[in-house]
């Protein structure tokens, strides 16, 4: 359901106020930062003054956001379903706000590799949280135990691999564009065996 202009106008006004309050700023503080009068800002927030594009640009900058984010509306496709790779125990979601990012839910059953040659290194960053079980993260020359509800974040230029410890574990990982590409390339080189063999994270 598309929003009409009145809905968008009201949304932008509420967003300006919410961002100001979230920063802990009074009307006077934001007005000073945006170089507008306090009464003008008050009328903008309360719907008593027309929203002008030049003022929105200034307010967005003062609120440390962009004009696009300030006027962004909710799209109809708020809820999305994952792409499922049942053969490798993977579920993958794209992040619409940043198509280069992806979220992966993965069940791992094998321990991490004994052979360091099977550790991966590629540009990017990864973040993962263990949903259940215990994971073993090999990172460079170090070995980390990551328990349920613990998270790990690391640059993927460090050789890394992940596996299960004493039984299956399930992880949720967030990959930036470079890390996702690195895994796709590694998966093709390995014959598409995915990550469930413990060869990567």
Structure notes:
This protein has 201 residues and is α+β, with helices and mostly antiparallel strands. The chain has 6 helices and 9 strands. The strands form 2 sheets. A 6-stranded antiparallel β-sheet has the order 1-2-3-9-4-7. A hairpin with a 7-residue loop joins strand 2 and strand 3. The protein is elongated. The two termini are 39 Å apart. The relative contact order is 0.14. The C terminus is likely disordered.
User: Structural class of the helix and strand makeup?
Assistant: alpha+beta
Q: Distance N terminus to C terminus?
A: 39 Å
Query: What summary fits the major beta sheet?
Result: 6 strands, antiparallel
Number of helices: 6
Chain-averaged pLDDT: 82
Summarize the structure.
The protein is α+β, with helices and mostly antiparallel strands and 201 residues long. 31% of the residues lie in helices and 26% in strands.
Characteristic terms for this protein:
201 residues; alpha+beta; 3-stranded antiparallel sheet; disordered C terminus
Topology, element by element:
Layout: H1 5-23, H2 27-34, H3 38-45, H4 53-62, H5 67-71, E1 83-85, E2 90-94, E3 102-108, E4 125-132, E5 134-139, E6 142-147, E7 151-155, E8 160-164, E9 169-175, H6 177-189
Helix pairs in contact: 2-3
